[in-house]
Amino acid sequence: MSRSDSATPRSAHSVLEHRASLSPARAASVAGRPESAVDMWLGQQLRQLRKQQGRSLADVARACGMSLGLLSQIERGLSSASVKVLHLLAREFQVSVNSLLRNAEHTQGEDGGRVARAGTHRFIDLSEKGISKEMYTPPACSSMDLCRATIEPGGSTGNELFVTGQGEQIGVVLKGSLELWVGDRVMLLNEGDSFCYASSTPRRWRNPGSQTTEVIWAISNITQPAGDDTQQAP
């Protein structure tokens, strides 16, 4: 793989321009907003690259001259990476900035951002967990997110329960089955079953079956105060 491009690719320009315009406090505050899907996607790519190269968080942070805590937050999608940090990480992992930002840019949509056409939706690839997500939220929508999660057999969010701040989530299983832990309860959901929970409720989920599972999630977003390290995710 080639090293980071010396010039920022045109396809990534608007994303970097937006990040560069944010103050550190503002950059931290957007982590819990609808745009956090971009940060989550970037973080997953960085984590995969680091693990593929067999490197620790401390090693990469030291090589890039940044704090361990900041790198950890970026990998988890809780902080936005600045233009400088993106270039440092791309150079360290020997990839282009464009490859890190691929599919991360918001499209303008149509009708003032109220319509997002097929083929323009962003994808979040969590292949190490056997999960991929297609984000259906039109650009003009600021209070809700809509996505479709595709979960491979055995794919899961992990063995630990997690929470994602405030708001509510509702979902419906389109295909396959979903094993959902909410608090101390476990539910087996099949095709056509729907469910809901508060985003602040500890949970985890996995595909226990032998075929791919597809789930539609609708998520209400409540803006987090600056410094709050939560994010909205199914």
How is this structure best described in words?
- The chain is globular.
- Helix 4 packs across helix 5.
- The two termini are 33 Å apart.
- It has two domains: 92 residues, Orthogonal Bundle (434 Repressor (Amino-terminal Domain)); 99 residues, Jelly Rolls (Sandwich).
- The chain is α+β, with helices and mostly antiparallel strands.
- Helix content is 28%, strand content 24%.
- Strand 2 and strand 3 form a beta hairpin.
- A six-stranded antiparallel β-sheet has the order 1-2-3-9-4-7. A three-stranded antiparallel β-sheet has the order 6-5-8, with no helix packed on it.
- Pfam families: Cupin_2, HTH_3.
- It comes from Achromobacter spanius.
- Keywords: DNA-binding.
Quick summary of this structure?
The strands form two sheets. The protein has a six-stranded antiparallel beta sheet with strand order 1-2-3-9-4-7. A three-stranded antiparallel beta sheet has the order 6-5-8, with no helix packed on it. The chain starts with 9 loop residues before the first helix and ends in a 14-residue tail after the last strand.
